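This entry is set out below.
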Amino acid sequence: MMQTYQAEAREKWGKTDAYREFEAKTEGRSKQTWDALVKEMDDIMVEFSLCMKQGESPASSKAKSLVKKLQSHITEHYYLCTDEILPGLGQMYVADERFRNNIDKHAAGTAAFIREAIEGCCRK
């Protein structure tokens, strides 16, 4: 399954600077490291779901803090996640059912909550 996702990503974004940076940062990573990073990302999604369940608005300071945490995680471990790139990820989290289902397993609507929080943070 992961090979399918990698091929899809390469086809869509393989010519971008971000994808080249992703390849450089991830080359030679062990399965243990990949698993730890996937868990970290999932933990961030859990935090978003809890924020939403606690009645926070996507525009709240808590939600904005989580957006910055998500952006920092991606930048540190994968590629420079700019304010121009991040809203596209938010859209993908909702539009692509694979992402939406994986994120919404924590609570229905979490993916949409994240997208709205991202849009609020990145709006210029």
The chain has a mean pLDDT of 87. Residues 59-124 form a domain with the Globin-like fold (CATH 1.10.490.50). The longest helix spans residues 31-53.
